[in-house]
Amino acid sequence: MLIGIKPCISAELLSVLYRMGHGDEIVLADAFFGGDALNARVIRADGIRIPDLLDGILRLINLDSYVEAPVIMMQPSVGDVLDPEVERRYREVIDRYWPDTPPIARLERFAFYERTKKAFAVVMTGETVKYANIILKKGVPPVSD
Q1: Is residue 3 in some structural domain?
Q2: Which of 22, 91, 106, 115 is the catalytic position?
Q3: What is the DSSP string of 57-91?
Q4: Quick check: is 22 catalytic?
Q5: How many domains does the chain have?
């Protein structure tokens, strides 16, 4: 195990995060999401909830500060109701690491699926909350000497 890396971050996920370039996107998907049907690079994180995974990821990468919406969630279908706690929990984690991140954007379900096809990777989690899927756009790391 490496120091500073949460145990929920597998070696495979760590490798994907490392290989992603700025502007690349990663989808953290709920347990019911059709990740394998939408993207060739699928990582299993069964049993891990998205807020925990988000906490592990955002301590390792930064979000893209050059786009309007570096974080996107799925918009509910007509007649469905969102649980506001889902976004609140995500925002709490985002603000812990990258507090200047713009509000989380929403994307229509089928547009979300199309965006997933172009993502660098999809992480299939153990999340069971409805509309918990989230896309993160990786940013350019701060320069250090």
Answers
A1: no
A2: 22
A3: HHTT--B-TTSS-SEEEEPPPTT----HHHHHHHH
A4: yes
A5: 1
